[in-house]
Amino acid sequence: MSDAPLLSLDLPGIRKVKSGKVREVFDLGDRLLFVATDRISAFDCIMPNGIPRKGEVLTQISHFWFDRTESWLPNHRLARAGDPLPSELMPFEASLAGRSMIVCKATPLPIECVVRGYLAGSGWKEYRTQGTVCGIPLLVGLRESDELPEPIFTPATKAETGHDENIPFEQAAELTGSALAEQARDLSLRLYRFARDYARTRGILIADTKFEFGVYEGKLVLIDEVLTPDSSRFWPADQYSPGRSQPSYDKQFVRDYLETLSWSKTPPAPALPADVVARTQAKYLEAFELLTGRRL
User: Fold this and answer.
1) Does the N-terminal or the C-terminal CB of the chain have fewer CB atoms within 10 Å?
2) CB 53 within 8 A of CB 284
3) Domain count across the chain
4) Selection from 52, 51, 74, 44 nearest residue 213 by Cα
């Protein structure tokens, strides 16, 4: 296991088209190369040091879910986890191993497809004051972290910086067209239920998650990362206790540490101590091992 996190990546001779909070995207002509780095962000700021192997966890969990859903839900993946790299990428194999995915050039929908199965985060804050989540009325008397009677679809806009903005389904339909919005909603709910039921058997509760879809050759396909600790709220089932916030398999240790500082939550972000990095890495690896039943 490498102790050095991969924080940035350039591939000489291959054009980088995007560098996000975590991913680097490269143009391979008729395909794209997604590479998940070990960067970690909190409060919309990227930390100066990362979490070793985090990018591998995100990529391999996405492969895991793609493997289990592609029979009924097409995705953008063109190469499986164990497939060899194409010849032009072989010189970079050491940097790409385990954390890269070759995908088709789908056109992303301009919305995030969020599914909530439990009352948490911003949904809980809204419910406390308005009795709704993203404008959707809920039963009276629910507690923080309660499971909802049925999962709800709460689309959001995509923000290049800062937070995504929750929008009504009608507005999502205006952005994508009604047919695509309805298809994305129905597939999101189906995928969430499938993953939720499986994860429960592995000791993980998926409280909420966000999916991205794109259009490729006229068809809607699932794109980007899927059901990872970065795109979802994973809770350990054996510690679940509604009426309070829950421990999670993501950036909890990072956020908890940052809350102890007098940092303004604007760049530049402070470096993370070694113990926070180690504990966060352990949670990401634990999530992978619980879901897949194997070690990374």
Assistant:
1) N
2) yes
3) 2
4) 74
Band the pLDDT of 1: cuts 50, 70, 90. Answer: very low
User: Is residue 162's pLDDT more than 70?
Assistant: no
- Last residue in a domain, options 191, 209, 239: 239
Give the domain-ending residue among 239, 258, 277: 239
CATH number at residue 122: 3.30.470.20
What's the pLDDT score for residue 160?
Answer: 65
One domain for residues 226 and 142: yes
What b/e sequence results for 114-147 when a residue is b if at least 16 CB atoms lie within 10 Å of its CB, and e otherwise? Answer: bbbbbbbbebbebbeeeeebbebebeeebebbbe
Q: Which of 221, 144, 159, 130 is nearest to 167 (CA)?
A: 159
**φ, ψ (nearest 5 deg) of residue 47:** -70, 150
Residues 6 or more apart from 87 whose CB is under 8 A from it? none
Which pLDDT does position 240 carry in this prediction? Answer: 98
